[in-house]
């Protein structure tokens, strides 16, 4: 099947080959890595532990190295938080280093999210005059920009210097418009360029795994847009200006649908959603008089995880299982963070459980 | 007078070519199949060493193809 796809790809000029791709090796390795992700039965157990017990539990699992490394500098919740960030960065850069050719290229494009995240963090840090250490604490060097380069950026005195350092990157065309005040606008544009890059990378390839990857990405956009819409509607915003928060390229929720939904009130928005493709996913937690959006957001996130897992079974030797792993890993880290932050803030177990996506 | 030369091919030569093709082509087929399985097995083993046994068995399963080829080659002979 792969040979066939290689021939097909070979004929298409729009997606040039990036050299030999080791799909079999990478996907098998990633699947073995996925088997080490904490099962969902772990979370109720974690809920019964104190912060120190959780640190120990995590220190005996996949996060051992990170906990050992950071235990000198941090303790308690901060230790776990930094260990989680470090592990995420190490895991994702590992994906980049074990993959070759086409796989490496696609994983790198996907990980640009973290490059953008880091650039945003540094700019935000400079905006509110945070110290270099404070900025470095929040950095997750999981993309193509490595930690050394990012820490050099964080050590710069002004945002102008940061931006001039990034002159050779694709983000410069957007960053050069930053004047010290329009941070949120620049951030939105950076987020959008990520998707533009991703669609560019997928190209108009005819191969089925790329199509599936495109579908998967577009579904992610749908869910993101839907969450933004829910938040906007809940706070009663109908300003058409808000369209610039939406990301183009959705699968079942096109921009013109969003434009129509944006002008409605929350109750009308909910009744209009009933015709939507995603209604089945959220139908039993959405009502016109709902108070919290946590349930909806959790459902949507869970739906994405589930569909990623099922997509990855359709094409076992393609980029999709790797994306599935990246999502699951990110989700695991988010869940652990929710548990420890919740515990540290003395939240009720029920409230913490509500937030978990398992 | 017209003379006609008839060149007859030795049937054992054809047999040998057939046997060679049977082993050679099935060998290539096994190699193609084992290439991906082998690299996948190495990948999985890099993460979890206990998969060595399973990986080894899965890697040699396509070996049956070339064994069939060999059997056919022996039968032809």
Order of helices and strands of chain B: HHH
- The end-to-end distance of chain A, rounded to whole angstroms, is 34 Å
Structural class of the secondary elements of chain B? mainly alpha
Instruction: Give a count of the beta strands of chain A, DSSP E runs of length 2 or more.
Output: 0
Query: Helix tally of chain A?
Result: 19
Annotated CATH homologous superfamily of the domain at 207-318 in chain A? V-type ATP synthase subunit C domain
Pair with the biggest interface = A-B, 17 and 14 residues
* Cα-based radius of gyration of chain B, to the nearest Å: 21 Å
Low-confidence stretches of chain A: 9-15
Beta-strand percentage of chain A? under 5%
CATH overall fold name of the domain at 207-318 in chain A: V-type ATP synthase subunit C fold
Question: Roughly what percent helix of chain B?
Answer: over 70%
Helix content of chain A: 55-70%
Top CATH class of the domain at 207-318 in chain A: Mainly Alpha
- The number of distinct helices of chain B, counting runs of at least 4 residues, comes to 3
Beginning-to-end CA distance, first to last residue of chain B: 41 Å
Average pLDDT level of chain B: 90
Parts with pLDDT < 50 across at least 5 consecutive residues of chain B: none
Tertiary shape of chain A:
globular
What is the typical, i.e. mean, pLDDT of chain A? 82
Could you explain how this protein is built, in words?
The complex is a heterodimer of chains A (358) and B (77). Chain A is mainly α. Chain A has helices spanning 2-11, 23-34, 42-47, 51-59, 64-70, 76-98, 101-127, 132-137, 147-154, 159-165, 172-175, 183-202, 208-234, 255-262, 266-273, 279-282, 294-314, 320-344, 349-355. Chain A has a domain at 207-318: V-type ATP synthase subunit C fold (Up-down Bundle), CATH 1.20.1690. Chain A contains 19 helices and no strands. In chain A, helix 13 (208-234) runs antiparallel to helix 17 (294-314). The two termini of chain A are 34 Å apart. The model of chain A is unreliable at 9-15 (pLDDT under 50). With 77 residues, chain B is mostly helical. Chain B contains three helices and no strands. Chain B has helices spanning 11-47, 52-60, 63-76. In chain B, helix 1 (11-47) runs antiparallel to helix 2. The longest helix of chain B is centred in the middle third of the chain and has 37 residues, at 11-47. Chain B is rod-shaped. The mean pLDDT of chain B is 90. Classes of the chains: A mainly alpha (358), B mainly alpha (77). Chain A binds chain B through residues 2-3, 22, 24-33, 35-36, 98, 317, and chain B through 32, 35-37, 39-44, 46-48, 51.
């Amino acid at each position: 099947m792969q040979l066939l796809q290689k021939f097909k790809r070979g004929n298409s000029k729009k997606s040039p080959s990036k050299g030999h791709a080791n799909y079999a090796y990478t996907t098998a390795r990633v699947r073995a890595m996925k088997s080490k992700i904490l099962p969902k039965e772990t979370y109720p157990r974690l809920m019964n532990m104190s912060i120190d017990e959780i640190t120990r539990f995590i220190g005996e699992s996949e996060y051992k190295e990170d906990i050992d490394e950071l235990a000198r500098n941090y303790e308690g919740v901060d230790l776990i938080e930094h260990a989680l960030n470090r592990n995420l960065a190490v895991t994702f850069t590992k994906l980049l280093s074990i993959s070759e050719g086409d796989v490496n290229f696609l994983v790198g494009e996907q990980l640009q999210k973290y490059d953008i995240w880091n650039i945003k963090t540094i700019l935000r840090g400079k905006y509110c005059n945070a110290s270099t250490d404070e900025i470095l604490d929040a950095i997750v060097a999981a993309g193509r920009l490595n930690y050394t380069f990012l820490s050099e950026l964080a050590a710069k005195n002004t945002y102008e210097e940061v931006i001039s350092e990034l002159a050779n990157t694709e983000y410069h065309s957007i960053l050069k418009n930053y004047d010290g005040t329009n941070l949120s606008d620049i951030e939105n544009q950076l987020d959008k360029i990520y998707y533009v890059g991703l669609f560019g990378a997928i190209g108009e390839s005819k191969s089925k795994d790329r199509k599936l990857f495109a579908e998967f990405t577009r579904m992610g956009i749908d869910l993101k847009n839907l969450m933004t819409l829910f938040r906007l509607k809940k706070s009663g915003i109908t300003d058409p200006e808000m369209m610039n928060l939406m990301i183009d390229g959705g699968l079942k929720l096109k921009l013109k649908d969003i434009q129509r939904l944006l002008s409605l009130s929350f109750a009308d928005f909910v009744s209009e959603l009933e015709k939507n493709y995603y209604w089945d996913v959220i139908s039993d937690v959405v009502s016109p008089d709902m108070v919290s959006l946590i349930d909806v957001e959790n459902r949507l996130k869970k739906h994405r995880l589930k569909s990623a897992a099922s997509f990855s079974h359709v094409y076992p030797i393609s980029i999709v299982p790797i994306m599935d792993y990246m999502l699951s890993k990110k989700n695991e880290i988010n869940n652990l963070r929710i548990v420890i932050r919740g515990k540290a803030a003395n939240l009720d177990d029920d409230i913490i459980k509500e937030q978990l996506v398992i | 007078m017209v003379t006609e030369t008839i060149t007859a091919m030795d049937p054992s030569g054809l047999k040998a070519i057939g046997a060679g093709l049977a082993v050679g082509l099935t060998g290539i087929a096994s190699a193609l199949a084992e290439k991906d399985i082998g690299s996948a097995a190495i990948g999985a083993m890099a993460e979890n060493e206990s998969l060595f046994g399973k990986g080894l068995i899965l890697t040699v399963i396509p070996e049956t193809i070339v064994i069939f080829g060999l059997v056919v080659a022996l039968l032809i002979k």
